[in-house]
Amino acid sequence: MKELELKYGCNPNQKPSKIFVNDGRELPIEVLNGKPGYINFMDAFNGWQLVKELKKATGLPAAASFKHVSPAGAAVGIELDEVMKKIYFVPEDAELSPLACAYARARGADRMSSFGDFISLSDVCDVATAKLIKPEVSDGIIAPGYEPEALEILKGKKKGAYNVIQIDPEYKPQPIEHKDVFGITFEQGRNELPINSELLANIVTENKELPKQAEIDLLISLITLKYTQSNSVCYAKGGQAIGIGAGQQSRIHCTRLAGSKADNWLLRQCPKVLDLKFVPGISRADRDNSIDLYIGEDYMDVLAEGAWQNIFTEKPEVFTKEEKKAWLAQATDVALGSDAFFPFSDNIERAGRSGVKYVAQPGGSKRDQDVIDACNKLGMTMCFTGIRLFHH
Questions:
Q1: Which single residue of 73, 177, 216, 226 could bond 65 by disulfide (Cβ 3.0 to 4.6 Å)?
Q2: Is 391 among the catalytic positions?
Q3: Is 366 tagged catalytic?
């Protein structure tokens, strides 16, 4: 198949719409179920590039959760401990493959943003992963293949309309890419720069410590940024992105947005949150929204109005600002990547409040020394990669 006609483009009024390869080759994909749309394919192709590169860099199976052409989550297949299983709502009796662990991490880190996502997997989708995907609200999936039973599980989603795409893992695009804007064609070389541990060799801070897990987390953050709409910043820990700030005009806003998501991930591990008791039959979305609301600043209103009775079996205690601050103060070993240099030290100061200890950024700002000094003051390890990762 050399082209695939789509229902419409980004919006229903944008017709006609189709996908094809400019050099006339066959499309490297096969739609096994459903009817993916324009944005579905944008998410699928960006996500596939991310997980393919993540696996190459780390040697581990990888998964990504995409929404509107930016990742909501990305992770590699590191085993889940009991706390991670609980905050990701993994069934106690679930059999978890490395790929399933990667998916649980990618989908679970920012469940609000991942709602209605498009999933990308680096490896053949196995039954364990398909079973975790089945109850989640998702638009579709792309992978290099599917075990027969896994495919049948996925075909049953959305009343049989779930989008399942298989991609040829050997497909290699042309080195020059094109994009049309306002009837004008832009041409550039593809961003084929490999992201690997060599980029982390230039440590510019007094602290030179960079453990293997921190190296993996920095690679995850940088590869995630490579496929995130810029400006962008990514916090990572334990083999996964835990906070992604995408598409902001100011870098400090990226850092704050991503940091607030990382804080949310960290706070969800607090026993006070883990012990919340939900009413039977509550939807996954309502449960997730309620957790975010409980962690947030306005939950006193919900408790006062008695609305908690529709959510919890017993009235939860207020999660005070002091308790949140104390819990976050324990956070450490978080990695932070930036797609361009930090122009001011305020980014480092904000990152420190979310437990950041390892930083990777291009360097090259007039105020590099201010940023290095801020890292030294907080005991952080920072690498200058020398590369920018803008994606538009």
A1: 73
A2: no
A3: no
